[in-house]
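Subject: sequence -> C-alpha cells, single chain

Hey, anyone have a minute? Need the predicted structure for the following. Not urgent.
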Amino acid sequence: QVQLVESGGGLVQPGGSLRLSCAASGSIFSISTMGWYRQAPGKQRELVASITIGGSINYVDSVKGRFTISRGNAKNTVSVYLQMNNLKPEDTAVYYCNRVTGNLSWGQGTQVTVSS
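Reply:
Had a minute. Here:
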C-alpha cells in the first residue's frame, strides 16, 4: 500500500519562508525520483523540483535560487522536503509530492498562500 502525506503549508507574507514535508510510504518510493508539484487555481499541476535517489536535483526556472529539495530514505518510507525562501505571491498553490515518472495516487496536498 502506498500513501503520500504532505504537510507544512500555511499563510506567509511575501519574502517569507516555509518548509514542506512529504511522507511517502511504500517501498517503491525508495527507488524513485521524487518531486514536488504545485497547482494554482485555474492552472495545471506543474513539477517545480525533483530529486533522484542519487541526489541529482532539478528545479523549474521560477524557483531556482529560492527553493531547495531534499530527501531521506528509510526502508519503507521516503521523506521529501521543500525549503521555500523568499516566497512570492505567484508561489501560492497547493503543493504535492509524488514520483516523477509514473505518478501514483496523489495525497491531499498542502496549501501555500503568499499574501500581505
